[in-house]
Structures are given as structure tokens and as C-alpha cells.
Predict the structure.
Amino acid sequence: MSSILILNGPNLNLLGTRQPEVYGSETLQMIEKACRDHAQAKGLEVDCLQSNHEGELIDAIHNARGKHQGIILNAGAYTHTSIALMDAVFSVELPMIEIHLSNIHAREAFRHTSYIARAALGQICGFGSQGYLLALDALAVHLAAQRGDQ
Ligand code: CA2
């Protein structure tokens, strides 16, 4: 069974408490539960982790090698600043889908740049929490094709 790491970055632990007009009203725990249920229905395993610390996110990406077959990453504001996170993703050679709740391209100019995107299989943004489920679907299809499933 394929295992996916769902990694959330800084401030995403605050989901559901403020700015619901931008990020929705669900908590991160609710989103993670929806991901677990969706993954189970697709025959995937998921591990979920959130950290406000860049180094912890990098360690989690390194530790994914040999344990997980893919990564779903919402790097929060580190998306727009962190070459180190981008390098970490390149280093593990795992398919990674970049995800954002909001449409970063329709927001402030500083959110239009993503270092993460260079290392991503693809980017999903603007669909709120549903984006995580779309990312799981996309990874499931990618991994099946990689394995050569019919
Ligand atoms: O849209 C996304 O998912 C973001 O990754 C969220 C980040 C933002 O910096 C990115 O540009 C886009 C911010 C997450 C902050 O989440 C909060 C949630 C509730 C209250 C305050 C912050």
C-alpha cells in the first residue's frame, strides 16, 4: 500500500480560528481527518504533520525517503521564501504536490512566487480544503502509472 506524507507549514495550525474568508472555517484536524478518510477509500495510507519550524519541515521531508511514496506539501509562507525546502524536496526524489488553500496567484504579488513549485509534480491552489483531496487523487493516479498498473 502506498503511503503519503501530508505536510503543513507555519500558521496552518491556526486554521478555523481566523481569516475564514481566505482559508475557510475548517480546522487542520478536520482537514487531516478528511484526508485520512479519502486516502483509505483510495487504498492509500497517510501520515500528517504540521510544523511552524523550517528545519522540522526539512527533517520531515528527509525522513519521508524510504517510508512514503509521495508528499503533499502546504509550506505556508515558506513557499515564497525557502530555497532550503525546495532543495529538501529535490534531494528525496519523491513526487510532491504543492497545495494552497487560497489562490496565491490572485493575492499579493509576494505570494505569486513559489520556490516549492520548481520541485513539484504540480500545484493545486484556490480550492480550499478540497485541494488536499484533489492532491491525493492526483498522487494516486501518478503512483499507479509509475507502478505500471492497468
Ligand atoms: O493558501 C495557503 O494555503 C497558504 O499556503 C497559506 C499561508 C500563506 O502564507 C500562503 O501564502 C498561502 C498562510 C497560512 C496562515 O494560516 C492562517 C490560518 C488562520 C489564521 C491565520 C493564519
Observations:
- The mean pLDDT is 97.
- The two ends are 16 Å apart (CA to CA).
- Residues 105 and 112 are 5 Å apart (CA to CA).
